[in-house]
Design a protein that fits this description.
Blueprint (H helix, E strand, L loop, with lengths): L2 H19 L6 H14 L5 E7 L2 E8 L7 H4 L9 H30 L1
Antiparallel strand pairs: 1-2
Length: 114
C-alpha cells in the first residue's frame, strides 16, 4: 500500500486496538474499522521472512509482485522529468510548516521570559 493509505491504516489500527481492549468488538465502530482495515489489505500479497528469537521478531526480508517500490523511479541517474534540484524545492515546501511552528514557539518563549 502507498504511504498515505498506510498512515491512515496505522491510525485506524490504534483505534481498533483501543476498542478491542475495552471490550467493544461487537460495536458498530469496531465493525466499521474491521471493514476499513480489511479493505486496505485486499491488494497486499507477498512473502515476508522472519526470525523469531526469545520473544523478538526480526524481519529478514520481504518481496511482493505488487510492490510499489520501483528502483528506476527513485534513482536520479535514470532519464526522466526528475532533476536533483527538484529535491531542494520539495524539502523547502515540506519544511514550511516546521518553520512556522518554530516561529510561533519562539514567540511563546519570548512572552514567557518577559
Amino acid at each position: 500500500m502507498d504511504r498515505e493509505v498506510r498512515k491512515i491504516k496505522q491510525g485506524l489500527s490504534l483505534k481498533f486496538s483501543e476498542l478491542v481492549y475495552n471490550g467493544f468488538w461487537h460495536s458498530p465502530e469496531c465493525e466499521f474499522l474491521r471493514e476499513c482495515i480489511g479493505r486496505s489489505q485486499e491488494p497486499v500479497v507477498g512473502t515476508v521472512r522472519l526470525s523469531v528469537l526469545k520473544g523478538q521478531v526480526y524481519i529478514l526480508g520481504r518481496e511482493s509482485p505488487r510492490s510499489l517500490y520501483n528502483e528506476e523511479l527513485v534513482s536520479m541517474n535514470v532519464q526522466g522529468d526528475y532533476e536533483p534540484a527538484d529535491a531542494t524545492g520539495f524539502i523547502n515546501i515540506n519544511s514550511l510548516r516546521l518553520k512556522e511552528y518554530h516561529r510561533l514557539q519562539s514567540k511563546v518563549t519570548v512572552k514567557q521570559d518577559e
